[in-house]
Amino acid sequence: MKLETLNDIFFNAVAANLPRILTYKHAGRWKDISSQELYRQVTAVARALQAWGFRRGDHVAILSENRPEWQIADFACLLLGIVDVPIYATLPADQIIYLLNNSEARAIFVSTQEQLQKVLQIRRQTKIEKIVLMEDAPPGEAVAFQSLIANAPTGRDAALDAIGESIKPDDLATIIYTSGTTGTPKGAVLTHGNITSNISFSLRDFGSGTTDLSISYLPLSHITARHLDYYCLQCGVALAYCPHLEDLPQTLMEARPTLLVSVPRVYEKVYNKVLLETRHGIKHKIYEWAMKVGRAHRQEILSGKTPSSLQWKLADALFFSKVRKGFGGKARAFISGGAPLGIDLATWFADIGIVILQGYGLTETSPVIAINTPEANRLGTVGKKLPNVEVKIAEDGELLVRGPSVFHGYWKLPQETQEAFVDGWFKTGDIASLDADGFLSITDRKKDLIKTSGGKFIAPQPLENLLKSNPLVSQAAIIGDRRKFPAVIIAPHFPVLENWAQENNVSFSSHAQLITSPRVQELYEGIIEALNQKLAQFEKLKKVLLVPDEFSIATGELTPSMKLKRRFVEKKYQTQIDALYSNAETGVTV
Known about the structure:
Elements: H1 6-15, E1 22-26, E2 29-33, H2 35-51, E3 59-63, H3 68-80, E4 83-87, H4 93-103, E5 107-110, H5 113-122, E6 130-133, E7 143-144, H6 145-149, H7 158-166, E8 172-177, E9 187-191, H8 192-202, E10 213-216, H9 223-235, E11 238-241, H10 248-255, E12 259-262, H11 264-277, H12 281-296, H13 298-302, H14 310-326, E13 333-336, H15 343-351, E14 356-361, E15 368-371, E16 384-385, E17 390-393, E18 398-402, E19 409-410, H16 414-419, E20 421-422, E21 425-434, E22 440-445, E23 450-451, E24 457-458, H17 460-468, E25 473-479, E26 487-492, H18 494-503, H19 511-514, H20 518-532, E27 543-546, H21 566-572, H22 574-582, E28 588-589
Parallel strand pairs: 1-11, 3-4, 3-5, 5-6, 6-7, 10-11, 12-13, 13-14, 26-27, 27-28
Antiparallel strand pairs: 1-2, 8-9, 9-19, 14-15, 15-16, 17-18, 18-21, 20-21, 21-22, 23-24, 25-26
Helix pairs in contact: 1-2, 1-9, 2-3, 4-5, 8-9, 12-14
């Protein structure tokens, strides 16, 4: 099958003539969309865009959670050569204004009345001419999506097909705004060829096909999710939509995916839930024994084999299989991307028989640069580079990349674009190393490196991942840039901490009161002290600041792709941080 543009993926998905290529939950029941119905709806929406005067090179935004209409709107734009601009559904109206104006979007697809109201608040400050509402509800000032597809023809549309086939690999496909761990979001300009060249190599060793299913729940406004869904459609893998992260556990049980791609935060939540549920009694004894069995078979598991010993089979029946069931029970491939996966977490999953294959990439690289595969996997690394990209390590340790999947620049930001490259190599901003076998390891973000006032550099992410492997820690942010010593802000995992408090007769009426307890402070001091035993002297954490809320996207500490917004966290708790460093006598600050 030809794969040069994203329209080729659409045409290939239609040609596969599958009875179920997309599936979604409506009124409590799963409904399937066939290849032919996908074509019908895409062409109907494309015709509507044409009728409104939208042409090749115009820009259209999509503000929506994951749902079939997202993909349909996307393909309708791509078919016409329209550049689409995905926007995170979690963003407030005042942040959406910038994205719409900067991208010069003239129309927008919105998912719900809530999203519609955001756009209506700011419409007069933008160039938006048309709003399409996906939700089955009175559209008001928007056009109902259902009205666009109600009378769509059932046959092929030769004229639209010809337009879609005329699109070239170098044509602009999308502008994806970086999630913004620092500063104002920048629009990464990606062509059809950027993305398809990446899809051709990124997951080719996973052998996916029409018997597979993947859940589309990572935000499609992020390149990782979009790349995965394109790959699935190209291979005939059915996509089951999960619009809201809180619905993922139920969706996993109902849809039972065979291919699971996630961010580390989801795996961390599973790990913490297991530890919480096996804290006492016979469950704890079974857990401790089963983990010992798993550790003894780790290398066998990592080599792709299922252990045959009686102990393993018993441990699997009593414990391991129950964890897999939480993922639906059918997953044959687990992949992690979007943020670093801690080696302790990866090892824990390997010990229970789940090999998580970590990959790595950026919006600007469409996204995959390297990935572990079932045949070539090394814990603690992000795998080997893709065959069609080149990588090298700069003198300061920064990873440089070039190849067909590397973007052409940032939208309307020539200076930033120029600064993103050196001698034709894209500067990833990540500190990395390559081992003798070609496995790539990412140490940290270059901008995140902490330089103490003593001149020592500390990479915070590995320390944060070690801390998050403790069930009492939900999130951690290492601080200490230009300070005398490093410290850490910890957002406790409150379900576990509350259980601990009840078991230890620590009374509390709120999270804020709980973290002020001297016994809680002592508990977290112990966690830090245990970590410090593994660290060099200059890395040792001298102070810990406990905060009363877990970090989230909604409150701003995490990006929509679940990365820590370190600068935001530091600014939010600036007063407490200043107090922490000015009062060095005690170990814990709240």
